[in-house]
Amino acid sequence: MSTDKNSYYGIEKYYHRLENSSDLDPLMDKIGDSKYVLLGEASHGTHEYYTWRARISKRLIKEKGFSFIAVEGDWPDCYNINSWIKNYKDSPDDIFEVLKEFKRWPTWMWANWEIAAFATWLRDYNDKLPVNEKTGFYGLDVYSLWESMESIVDYLEKEDPETAKLAREAVLCFEPFKARDSYASVFSSSNSDCKREVVDLLKEVRKKAHSYDREEEAGLNAELNALVMANAEKYYKAMAGFGEDSWNVRDRHMAETLDRLMKNHGKEAKVIVWEHNTHIGDARATDMAADGLINLGQLVREQHRKDGVCLVGFGSHSGSVIAGKRWGAPMEKMKVPEAISGSVEELLHRESAQNKLIIFDEDERLKEKFSEEMGHRAIGVVYHPVRERGNYVPSRLSERYDAFLYIDKTRGLHPLKIHPHPELTPETYPFGI
Which residues belong to the signal peptide in this entry (predicted)? Predict the structure, then answer.
């Protein structure tokens, strides 16, 4: 590979301006008929990442008929958004009442004005459509163990008392852990295993899911809550040091949930995924691979390439972000310093301090330029600007993504000022992504 800078002279002409929704035309062309579009973010607290993902998603829904959005969020809370945007029976009148139910730290990820605005657009869009054509909104993550238990027991008690017995057995198995500081810590000193109970429950719910449809999507909701219970047990065990790495367990759960959602929506289904770059950018093009880590972007490419997959990364040079200084800490607006020398973000800023869209396969020189390994910023929910150099993932950008949105200066998003429930502890990936 040539590293002669002159070989890249004029390569900037292949960058597309990025100022409004119409500037996304090249990305729409790149996506084409793909069924899987994964949209990243370089932090969980940046206004522009949320708003540009919303712009892309609106166009995909209106112009290409995408079926649903799947996000890096808990199933029960995100399902409440799904019910609201589809105007299901007994949904609150106000989207803010729905978002107040996001009580697990970091609440700002989904309880923010940007999501409120997008959800309101989705509801207005869905109101014009029959039930089976409404766009959905679902959570892919594995953290909501207690919430999923509560949801499934409450539902089965009303609709399927026989299966509810299995649910209660699973709850009894997990109950001793709820009083501890964290589920993971229990497994460091205990051999208790709840796997049999939750697997039995999942099998039974899957077998009977078709009969649960007296409420809209009730069968899907019951099955996915049971799946969270099954995989949460594996995830928290892995966090305590038993078996497979917790990161891989988590991303495999997200892939399994995504597959179940696609199956539920039929053979013509198309999905938009919103997650951090570390989940949607192909792990094989980063140093994650050397550590034996996989991610959702890699799994989707490997399993669904024939259906069309487009991975879209995001990044910025400087600005501000919403994050916490430690687990469970109050959220605050923090300064994001200028990107470090030699990073993707510093290179793009140096070339021009303008927002830009890059489609990597539009020119071989463009693809070659970004196949060189460079640091690519990744900010988690825990952030310390003074430790900025530790926030870069070595990446071959044109292999990690199919396209990249660069926003030169960004702002922190706008939380609804919801505080986490004092009894909930942040049981998430140690690096906070």
Answer: none
Distance CA 401, CA 353 (A): 22
Give helix then strand counts, H and E, for the chain: 16, 11
Number of compact structural domains in the chain: 2
pLDDT above 70 covers a percentage of the chain that reads 76
Which of 148, 244, 232 lies closest to 184 in space, CA to CA?
Answer: 232
Give the single-character DSSP code of 127.
T
Beta-carbon contacts of residue 153 (< 8 Å; ≥ 6 apart)? 164, 167, 168, 171
* Domain encompassing residue 338: 1-139+270-433
Give the Cα separation of 205 and 227 in Å (integer). Answer: 10
The pTM is what?
A: 0.83
Please tell me the total number of residues recorded for the chain in this structure. 433
Q: Are 201 and 209 in contact (CB under 8 A)?
A: no
| CB 422 within 8 Å of CB 265 | no
What is the pLDDT, as a whole number, of residue 109?
Answer: 95
Task: Report how far residue 281's alpha carbon sits from residue 118's, in angstroms, rounded to the nearest whole number.
Answer: 24
Q: Are 175 and 194 in contact (CB under 8 A)?
A: no
